[in-house]
Specification:
By secondary structure, this protein is α/β, with parallel strands linked by helices. The protein is built from six helices and five strands.
Length: 137
């Protein structure tokens, strides 16, 4: 199960607490938001993201984050940006993205996805997809 993503629900952690968490577990801290901006500005010709049309591409981007990691674990921050975006779009692809992410296997390293506790109630009905890979900090 080390090759699958894990969810860590937390209240807003300070930068110091996140740094300490990353140091304690020898983890790379990666911001999904920063990665998305970097990918979009370097490869896209469009000024629109249209993430709802490319949820599988975003799962692949998360896999690539694991490939590029320099430490044994990745702490992925700011994924709630994508979740909020998908949640607010008509004909939301949030459930599809969530299923694809939960079913992801063979990651280069474990990825711990940090989400605000407010997402715990939104995703409660989907947690059966995540087995025991959900923790609260």
């Amino acid at each position: 199960m080390r090759d699958r993503p894990y969810l860590l629900y937390t209240d807003k952690l300070s930068k110091t607490a996140l740094h300490h968490l990353a140091f304690r577990y020898t983890a790379d801290r990666v911001s999904y938001r920063d990665d998305l901006i970097k990918r979009h500005t370097s490869t896209s010709k469009s000024s629109y993201l249209n993430l709802q049309l490319h949820s599988s591409r975003e799962v692949e981007a998360i896999k690539q984050i694991c490939q590029n990691a320099t430490k044994p674990i990745v702490l992925l921050e700011d994924l709630d940006v994508l979740l909020t975006y998908l949640h607010t779009r008509p004909n939301s692809h949030l459930n599809q993205f969530w299923r694809n992410l939960a079913a992801t296997r063979q990651l280069a390293c474990p990825i711990w996805i940090l989400l605000p506790k407010t997402w715990a109630t939104e995703m409660a009905s989907k947690e059966n997809l995540w087995d025991i890979r959900v923790k609260y900090l």
